[in-house]
Write a structure and sequence with these properties.
Layout (H helix, E strand, L loop, with lengths): L7 H7 L11 E3 L2 E3 L8 H5 L21 H15 L14 E6 L6 H5 L6 E6 L8 H9 L5 E7 L9 H12 L1 H7 L10 H14 L8 E7 L6 E4 L2
Length: about 230
């Protein structure tokens, strides 16, 4: 059979033209990987050992010893797993961004913000606090190659309009002084104004030495009453 013509990049190298990835990002599993990111050995991804996070799940039927929520989890997961086809997805978010938002039960980030499985990191905590999320954001950016952050707070948030003193008083009343002492002066990170809270979190990330200047940070507000999200100007 006739021989295949040489690949254009091969011809460029023969003619002394620098390969586009020479001394720059190199190809890894068919995608360009920035050289300063931590790379995970492909063998550890393809053939995980038990201490690398592999876990053999034994399907258990719902029973009377389980709470209703546990029973619902198993029942719903059985339906989900039956039609699951995303096992091929990379641990690197395909769209290279992270969202910091609140743990509020009224927010469905995937549906509200157009996130498909494998697209992005969604970091949730009480109040959608960027300070609380900093540990996860550093991991997201330095180990998992994200380059953009959305800070999304929401209307009628339980962390808005309260104080550390009020939360501490509630903890002490309900759990006792020993519990309060164990928390050791924890800052609950409440905020008093929604728009300013978003601006403060964006400013915190932009000023942090742990967040590279190349990372784009933006602030948003989600309205739990109508499902709409809008940007907050800096």
């Amino acid at each position: 059979s006739p021989s295949q013509p040489p690949h254009p990049e091969v011809e460029k190298r023969k003619n002394g033209v620098r390969h586009p990835f020479r001394n720059g990002p190199r190809l890894h599993r068919h995608r360009a990987v920035a050289p300063n990111f931590l790379e995970f050995p492909s063998s550890s991804i393809q053939n995980p050992t038990p201490d690398q996070g592999h876990f053999h799940i034994i399907r258990d039927q719902a029973n009377s010893n389980q709470t209703p929520n546990e029973q619902n989890l198993l029942k719903a997961n059985a339906k989900y797993a039956k039609h699951f086809h995303d096992g091929h997805l990379s641990h690197i978010p395909a769209k290279k961004y992270a969202i910091v938002t609140c743990m509020d039960c009224r927010i469905d980030p995937a549906a509200a913000f157009g996130i498909k499985n494998g697209d992005a990191h969604v970091i949730r905590n009480a109040g959608g606090s960027a300070r609380d999320a900093l540990r996860s954001l550093v991991i997201s950016e330095q180990l998992l190659q994200t380059t953009e952050v959305f800070v999304i707070k929401h209307t009628h948030c339980g962390m808005m309009g309260i104080t550390n003193e009020q939360i501490n008083a509630t903890v002490e009343k309900n759990l006792g002084g020993a519990a309060l002492a164990e928390l050791n002066g924890l800052d609950w990170l409440p905020f008093q104004n929604l728009e300013q809270g978003v601006k403060d979190d964006v400013a915190f990330l932009e000023a942090s030495k742990a967040i590279p200047d190349s990372v784009h940070v933006s602030g948003w507000v989600y309205d739990v009453e109508n499902g709409m999200v809008g940007p907050v100007k800096k």
